[in-house]
Amino acid sequence: MPTAFRSGPYRCFFYSADAAEPPHVHVERDERIAKFWLSPVRLQDSGGFSRTELVRLEGIVNENVEVLLRSWNEFFSS
């Protein structure tokens, strides 16, 4: 599970078996994991986060989408 980005208590990562899906990122904190598509950024699975926290997470993903897409492409193209 390569980590693409960290922001405060959140870890953005993807699973090595995710290559068959469109670019996306999983965001975890504690026991919660949400999934966001990256192009365009949109929530796929809320993973137990509150609505307020999901808005915060979507903002983090949007602010870092270029880094996340670059990490995705570098990992899955090698």
The H-and-E topology, N to C, reads as EEEEEHH
Regions with little confidence, pLDDT below 50 for 5+ residues: none
**What is the radius of gyration?**
11 Å
Tell me, rounded to a whole number, the average pLDDT: 94
Q: What is the domain total for the residues?
A: 1
Q: Percent range for helical residues? A: 25-40%
Q: How many strands appear in the DSSP assignment?
A: 5
Query: If strands are numbered along the chain, what order do they take across the biggest sheet?
Result: 1-2-3-4-5
How many helix segments? 2
Task: Please summarize the sheet with the most strands.
Answer: 5 strands, antiparallel
Beginning-to-end CA distance, first to last residue: 15 Å
Structural class: alpha+beta
Q: What general form does the structure show?
A: globular
Q: Per DSSP, what share of the residues sits in E-state strands of 2 or more residues? A: 25-35%
Describe the structure.
It is a single chain. It contains two helices and five strands; from the N terminus they run E-E-E-E-E-H-H. It is of the alpha+beta class and 78 residues long. It has one domain. The chain has a five-stranded antiparallel beta sheet, covered by helices on one side. A hairpin with a 2-residue loop joins strand 4 and strand 5 (41-45). The longest helix is centred in the C-terminal third of the chain and has 13 residues, at 51-63.
Summary of the model, kept short:
By secondary structure, the protein is an alpha+beta fold. The chain contains two helices and five strands.
